[in-house]
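user: can you give me the structure for this one chain? tokens are fine.
assistant: on it. calling the predictor now.
[tool input]
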Amino acid sequence: MNLYAILRRNGWKTPKDLEAAAERSTKVGNTEMPNEVRWIRTYVMAESDGTLGTVCIYEAVSPEALKKHADKAELAFSEVRPIVDTVVVRPDVAK
């Protein structure tokens, strides 16, 4: 599997909507596509129009598998890019 970043712009109106999407994503990934996609982490962003967007980090067999996962889980899907390296200066801040 390769590592990818998925940009999901303006995907959700409320944190509750995002929570429901996370449940769908987990279910699809774990039960329908466990050998194709693996969700690693997500960063939630406040969009300029008041909605929520995300940057999601996944392991996957291909960008097409990620699109298929997004379609099955009814997730926003704006852009996918392969991650070629990681530079960690400091660990993520716990919220």
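assistant: here you go. Strands lie at 2-12, 37-46, 52-60, 79-82. The first helix runs from residue 15 to 32.
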